[in-house]
């Protein structure tokens, strides 16, 4: 009678999921029909925050995905392997899958969804982006008739927390990172977060949904926040911007068939809806026609929020199973066949903020202007902002330029005798 | 083969809906399967912005809802009657319904959903709240496992536009209203908007979804923005607040079985996510467990945004019809049987902001304090802020107090010889 779950993993998200599924009082009545049938763990004797009946917990994950009694596999173990293989086996065995795993989906989504379509099962992934924020289902269903033009997100809580603290405290990246690590907001190895890899996985998934095609993760340009300095944050503030790590998927030159998909620290105008998203919160701004702008805001991580997304996906599957149909629901199944065309970053058209340290002030601005002009880089402002020791600091903001042209100009500028260094190059939204 | 629509109404939203349904290129492929079969209008010879094949447009709305060829009725004509009757006839005839009509749903929702359940059809209403913002479907599906504790929304664009302009320009209500009317942001008869009735309809719908029961619209407390003055906005700013017309549904004293559902101008802390929602934009903040806070932001009105919601509902129905099932989808059908218990406003526990004009300053603050104390009204601040002609102005902010107690204290204060008037009483979030 009930729907039987096989849960893979009992870490933070797995524990939150089991707790939520066990706490059925005053929640949706359909939760009553869900049975936690097996939970696969690596260390069966580890102390847990949840109690499960004898026989439910097992270390044999293969047995779970092969158990004919199980209807839905809930993958909350993370990692790439054996996760990918377990998901594929589950699908082959006709089981629906709920996953919170952006890394697996962004890398092996094509393989997984092709298998799911062949087997007639659904793969649900609301928890893979934005933690508890409903954004996958809105893109698949509530916004389904729109032509999506751009998706712009703050999708990594750790880096947003670090940038927010750098902004409010005037602190340096390294100091805030160390403190965030001691507080548990950043991992001991922070690479996936601070180098933008986690955000890249997520924007690949969002781009795929928004633009209706598969995304090759290797085509997603990715730049983290290690180079962002408190000096740049201070200048950005003076210029009317905050610095955010944005994940962006956008039609290149208003052309939805040629995308730019990228993650990088970005100067965001203070009046922009994403500018006020602070701390560990996430937000995803979707722009399309005819909808205009809609934004989804909420907790991007955490056991409870992520469990909300995982369990809502489970409930949606249970509801779909109740309709007792053999035909696939066109808005739940993945219909993408082709890969999206993604432009190289050199084709990007953007405004840029750049900070130069120069040895000798007289005539430098003129020389900069000449070289930028040569490469068609039109400047919005050039300001000599102050001195750092013996060096004059010059901040340049460009109009929209092609990134390739801008980089060529910078390469030539770097060779000027008057230029000591170019400590920061940031894109402007 | 295709799914046949009967559209009732060809005003702003109806025209936007037809335009979107006719513009299928580079949108969801499922749109190809939708046929605009009949469009019911009042004036067939009125010039229109859309072209429809001969025979599609008709003035016989009854014939549309009784036409056996039609699968889905799209109600975008507005008003209460004959709309309600047409919807009920359509349902009785086994047709699914998509509606943008908050007034009909908030008043006749019980009757309509009871009929829909009996007939085995769905009534979709994404466009009834928040224009194009996905909020109905997220509440029904993506957040379905949560215990919702509170829904707080800016759900009326006209009043938010007026309050934003009063705030930024320091203008008076009447002047901004007149200008908003001339710009088309407010109706010639602005009652439904500025007196909060439109917002009351919408929060009744959201409360019903969030708290899983029916809402008696008469129990929704409703207060508009006519009494909000530029003086109060200026004081609110000094105290760290902005004034917004909020629609709130909340468990009374953390008890989900006893609700407070209300619309009133509110002092919102400047750091609150809703404080920065300006102009005609809407936003709905949903708080629950375990999700925490999520917010949905976007255009609350307009032909394109509303058409996005209407057409996405249509597409969801078409997708569901494709699964060819006879069993109802438990998350799409309405499962509410009982009415929610709603407390009278006198039971509300809130902070209050009140402005007094007093004839004679000496000792007045002491007298206010004594009377408030008598009724257990604890004060956070009492400030004599200045003079208006011969009268001293005193602004009081309370701690959380029961509204009934606060009103009793005010009634007694009003009788003090020193009190000239109490021009504003506003709740504080």
TrEMBL record, chains A, B:
Catalytic reactions on record: L-homoserine + NADP(+) = L-aspartate 4-semialdehyde + NADPH + H(+)
UniProt cross-references to Gene3D superfamilies, sorted A to Z: 3.30.70.260, Dihydrodipicolinate Reductase, domain 2, NAD(P)-binding Rossmann-like Domain
State the needed cofactors, names only. Answer: a metal cation
One annotated GO molecular function is: homoserine dehydrogenase activity
Q: Does the keyword NADP apply?
A: yes
Q: What class of enzyme is it?
A: oxidoreductase
NCBIfam families, sorted:
PRK06349.1
Q: Which family does it belong to?
A: Belongs to the homoserine dehydrogenase family.
Name of the protein described by the UniProt record:
Homoserine dehydrogenase
> What range(s) does the ACT domain occupy?
353-429
Which pathway does UniProt place it in? Amino-acid biosynthesis; L-methionine biosynthesis via de novo pathway; L-homoserine from L-aspartate: step 3/3; Amino-acid biosynthesis; L-threonine biosynthesis; L-threonine from L-aspartate: step 3/5
EC number, UniProt record: 1.1.1.3
Q: Which InterPro entries match?
A: ACT-like_dom_sf, ACT_dom, Asp/hSer_DH_NAD-bd, HDH, HDH_cat, HDH_CS, NAD(P)-bd_dom_sf
The UniProt keyword set, sorted, is: Amino-acid biosynthesis, Methionine biosynthesis, NADP, Oxidoreductase, Threonine biosynthesis
């Amino acid at each position: 009678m009930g729907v039987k779950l096989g849960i893979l993993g009992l870490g933070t998200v797995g524990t939150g999921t089991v707790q939520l599924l066990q706490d059925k009082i005053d929640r949706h009545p359909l939760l009553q029909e869900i049975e936690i049938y097996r939970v696969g763990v690596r260390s069966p004797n580890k102390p847990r925050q949840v109690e499960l009946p004898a026989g439910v917990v097992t270390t044999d994950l293969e047995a779970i995905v092969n158990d004919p009694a199980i209807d839905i596999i809930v993958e909350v173990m993370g990692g790439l392997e054996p996760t990918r293989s377990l998901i594929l086996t589950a699908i082959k065995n006709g089981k629906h899958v709920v996953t919170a795993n952006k890394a697996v989906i962004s890398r092996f989504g094509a393989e997984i969804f092709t298998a799911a379509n062949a087997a007639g099962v659904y793969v649900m992934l609301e928890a893979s982006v934005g933690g508890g924020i409903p954004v996958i289902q809105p893109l698949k269903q509530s916004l389904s008739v729109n032509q999506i033009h751009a998706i712009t997100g703050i999708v990594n809580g750790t880096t947003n927390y670090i940038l927010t603290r750098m902004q409010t405290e005037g602190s340096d990246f390294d100091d805030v990172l160390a403190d965030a690590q001691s507080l548990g907001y950043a991992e001991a190895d922070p690479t996936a977060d601070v180098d933008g890899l986690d955000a890249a996985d997520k924007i690949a998934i969002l781009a795929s949904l928004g633009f209706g095609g598969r995304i090759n993760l290797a085509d997603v340009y990715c730049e983290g926040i290690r180079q962002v300095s408190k000096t740049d944050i201070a200048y950005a503030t003076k210029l009317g911007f905050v610095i955010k790590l944005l994940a962006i998927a956008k039609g290149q030159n208003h052309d939805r068939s040629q995308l730019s998909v990228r993650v990088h620290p970005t100067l965001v105008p203070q009046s922009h809806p994403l500018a006020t998203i602070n701390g560990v919160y996430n937000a995803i701004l979707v722009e399309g026609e005819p909808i205009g702008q809609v934004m989804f805001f909420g907790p991007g991580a955490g056991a409870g929020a992520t469990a909300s997304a995982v369990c809502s996906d489970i409930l949606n599957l249970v509801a779909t199973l109740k309709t007792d149909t053999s035909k696939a629901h066109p808005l739940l199944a993945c219909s993408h066949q082709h890969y999206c065309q993604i432009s190289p970053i050199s084709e990007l058209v953007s405004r840029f903020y750049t900070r130069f340290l120069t040895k000798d002030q007289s005539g430098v601005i003129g020389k900069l202007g000449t070289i930028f002009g040569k490469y068609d880089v039109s400047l919005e402002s050039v300001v000599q902002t102050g001195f750092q020791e013996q060096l004059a600091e010059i901040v340049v903001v460009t109009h929209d330029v092609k990134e390739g042209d801008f980089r060529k100009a910078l390469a030539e500028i770097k060779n000027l005798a008057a230029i000591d260094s170019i400590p920061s190059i940031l894109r402007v939204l």
